[in-house]
Amino acid sequence: AAGMAAEDEAELSLLECRVCFERYGLGGQRRPRNLPCGHVLCRGCVGALGGPERRRLECPFCRRACGPAETSDCLPLLQLLEVLGPAGGSVPSALGRSGEGAAGAAPAGLGLRLCLGGWGSLVNPTGVAACRRSGRLAVTHDGKKRIHVFAPSGSCLQRFGERGDAGNDIKYPLDVTVTSDGHVVVTDGGDCSVKAFDFEGRGVLAVREGFCLPWGLDATPEGEVILSDSEAGALYRLTANFKKGKLKKCQMIRSQLISPRGVAVSQTSGAIVVIEHLKAQGLNSGSTRVKIFSAEMDLVGQMDSFGLNLVFPSKIYSTAVAFDKEGRVIVTDVCSQAVICLGKPEEFPIFNPLISHGLSYPVGLTYTPNNSLVVLDSGDHSIKIYSST
């Protein structure tokens, strides 16, 4: 019982403003806002702390000062509120946590090896990618410099990609990938572009034409980039000479998808997997569908939340997807706060939870060259690296 009580306590602090203790909401005064230090308050408390002149306010937790204009919507919490729906049940019940732990324990073999980032170092991180040659990790987040590059050991090597309006600045990064020749490529939801940098942080290419809302992206072994356009409902293949900063071709390879976001490319077969976000009719809460295409873009398999309910007794809401070294599809599930293996395209879907404890809002997923599993947890602004024990 103590365990459950602690879990409920953690959940209360996640969904409530820690100043007024009112539950967060999607609109109005209870909308969760992020301060530059990474702490979250509701809009009403931000206004109250700023006083009638809307002057500078101090964070009630760490005393860092900021102006009201420096606050931003806390997207992970807003997405979580959307998943929970208007009834706003508790996280474990809405997320189908049964007493005996629906997800089960992690299969023997995956242990948490390293935890990076955390409050202040990363603010609302949105994407993570590994360089397949050097093992460096690139993370996009909402800080003043949008891209952090970590060494395999966990030390921070570089921070670049200024927040701003200049050509190579990044307004709102949604996802990141690293090409085989070591370029960091980012989707920018702020100006609907795709931007590429070298590892020193120099902007080498910005592609703006023709995208409605570029979202997820992943590099192919040949150094091309597959990206999803959430509003256009399309997948594109982008070919460029990043060293010279020249775009060669941007070709639509699939259309008529429903809000595609997370995307991954198998390094062995060239298969492509994408997560669609389906809005439930008339309901606030949506669901997700995982679609797998062969390298030739034939549909090989698909699995929606409803279908998974037949094999797994809980709602599944996937935000990120990756292929492991053997070509199995791995997804995050923010509902059971888990990472789940759905198997290879030909055996799709099996259901094998890889990580079912210690995550609060997993939004990103990648594998390092030495086959460690990297999970980006936006709930506590951290990167968690798991390896076989």
Describe the structure.
A four-stranded antiparallel sheet has the order 6-29-28-27, with no helix packed on it. It has helices spanning 2-15, 43-50, 75-84, 91-94, 305-311; strands at residues 32-34, 40-42, 57-58, 65-66, 72-73, 110-117, 127-130, 137-140, 145-150, 156-162, 173-178, 183-188, 193-198, 203-207, 214-219, 225-229, 234-241, 246-254, 260-265, 272-278, 287-293, 299-304, 321-323, 329-333, 338-343, 352-355, 362-367, 373-377, 382-388. Residues 1-9 and 92-108 have low confidence and may be disordered. A hairpin with a 4-residue loop joins strand 24 (329-333) and strand 25 (338-343). With 389 residues, the chain is mainly beta.
Mean pLDDT: 84
Largest sheet: 4 strands, antiparallel
Give the strand line-up of the largest sheet.
6-29-28-27
Q: Provide the low-confidence segments as ranges.
A: 1-9, 92-108
Number of helices: 5
Assign the CATH superfamily of the largest domain: TolB, C-terminal domain
Q: What percent of residues adopt helix (DSSP H or I)?
A: 10-25%
The value of Rg in angstroms is 20 Å
CATH architecture assignment name of the largest domain: 6 Propeller
Q: Assign the structural class, choosing from mainly alpha, mainly beta, alpha/beta, alpha+beta, or little secondary structure.
A: mainly beta
Global outline: globular
Pfam families: NHL (PF01436), zf-RING_5 (PF14634)
Domain RING-type: 17-63
Keywords: Ligase, Metal-binding, Repeat, Zinc, Zinc-finger
Catalytic activity: S-ubiquitinyl-[E2 ubiquitin-conjugating enzyme]-L-cysteine + [acceptor protein]-L-lysine = [E2 ubiquitin-conjugating enzyme]-L-cysteine + N(6)-ubiquitinyl-[acceptor protein]-L-lysine
